[in-house]
Amino acid sequence: MSLDEQFKQVADKVRNWKTKPSDDENLALYSLYKQATIGDVNIAQPSGLVESAKWKAWNGRKGISQDDAKKQYIENAEKLHSKYA
C-alpha cells in the first residue's frame, strides 16, 4: 500500500472515532493533516480563537514535507487509535 493510500485510510478511520481526542491531540492531528494535504500554511492568520489556534498549530509544521507529515500523522493516529476508536 502506498503512503498516500495508507494516509487516506488512517484519516478516514480518525474521522469515525467514537470519542474526540483532547484539544492538544486534535490540534496535532489537524496540523499534520493540513501540512500533509496542503503543505505550508497558505492563508493569513484568522482572528477567531479556535481558528487562530488551528492556524498556529499548522504554521508550527512549516517546512515539513508533505510525505513526512503523512508519516507523522499516521504514527500519531495509530498511537491514539486504541484510546478513541
TrEMBL record:
InterPro entries: Acyl-CoA-binding_protein, Acyl-CoA-binding_sf, FERM/acyl-CoA-bd_prot_sf. GO terms for molecular function: fatty-acyl-CoA binding. GO terms for biological process: fatty acid metabolic process. Gene3D superfamilies: 1.20.80.10. Belongs to the ACBP family. PANTHER family: ACYL-COA BINDING PROTEIN 1, ISOFORM A, ACYL-COA-BINDING PROTEIN, ACBP. This is Acyl-CoA binding protein. It comes from Bombyx mori. The gene is 692575.
